[in-house]
Amino acid sequence: MTQMEAAREGIITPAMKRVAEREGVDAETVRAGVAAGTIVIPANPAHGGLDPTGIGKGLRTKINANIGTSSHYPDPQAELAKLRVALAAGADTVMDLSTGGDLDLCRRLIIEASPAPVGTVPIYQAAVEALARHGSIVAMTADEMFEVIERQAADGVDFMTVHAGINRETAARFKKNPRLTNIVSRGGALLFAWMEMNDQENPFYEHYDQLLDICREYDVTISLGDACRPGSIKDATDASQIQELIILGELTKKAWEKDVQVMIEGPGHMALNEIVPNMLLEKKLCHGAPFYVLGPLVTDVAPGYDHITSAIGGAIAAANGADFLCYVTPAEHLRLPSLEDMKEGIIASRIAAHAADIAKGVRGAWEWDLEMAGARVLMDREAVVRLALDPAPVRRHLEKGAGETCRACGDKCAFLLAAAYFGESS
To answer: Which homologous superfamily is 48-359 in?
Structure first.
């Protein structure tokens, strides 16, 4: 029985109870959200040691961190180090996007070590194995693609990005409406090339029922990938992106008919003024399913600072309906991120998520800020450290101060002056 099937039968599962406990909400609220499809709990029963996390309406905005090997860096131990950094920095989920080395071993080690839900993009592994087996990525077969999906599901993967919305209709729309940055989704580009070179329909679209059967058996949450996400602000909200979004909405309803949980993936790069309309479109066209966004990055001219451009867009997106933010690091578009890059990206995304949670009225968000404000008024340094989203730099800066006041204001500290005027009543 999947989480959605249980919820629709009125059953509150242990995973739902745990999500309710973590969110500070009633378990019935979680159950009703899962039943309606507005909340997902990616929780594959084969993932031992999982601490379930809920994503969706009324819950805290969640953060994902991408990790994974490449052909140049195939060591799975390095990815386990990234996993530890990601979890310590506050990531709610991780995605293993490995493309180098022993992919099965790396994934299994990550799942075994992670109490957080683990996601994958199965087409990556299918492409790597096809290249080794056939000498060509486009020579992979539909059966080989689905075999990888089932293998990953059996290993305990909790959610999978599957680019089922880039069908032949979407591809035709894309070719009629040229883009500046073409297709920047790696999974989307792989499938587009496969379809064009083989003159066939996308297997994930054509055999979508087979995909749903696998996901139902293992209770894997489908994250419907946005193959046509914009790779520059010029390409945002174009015909291809909207065409795919319409199809993803149709696929969402089909998944729900089989009690399979669904998230929708979204942009990408997008000008500030286009974010709110895009959030409204997704929620309308995809029937309120949780929305998972990369950014959006609100400008293309800040390489090296894209964790900031992403956080700006992410805050606006989440305040207006996005439920799940994929972190972006300062190394985005430039190189593989370091451990420090990862932490910076996660913290930036967490700031964006929390700012949005205040705007959305998520339980506990406003109260956290009130408590911090009170600690600052009382100049309670230990409380300020304890309440900080990232305590380490706060303590580091405070240790450089002196006495009861910081060196920026000295005896002109506003809080000290106010306390002297208002006395104990302040």
So the answer is: Radical SAM ThiC family, central domain (3.20.20.540)
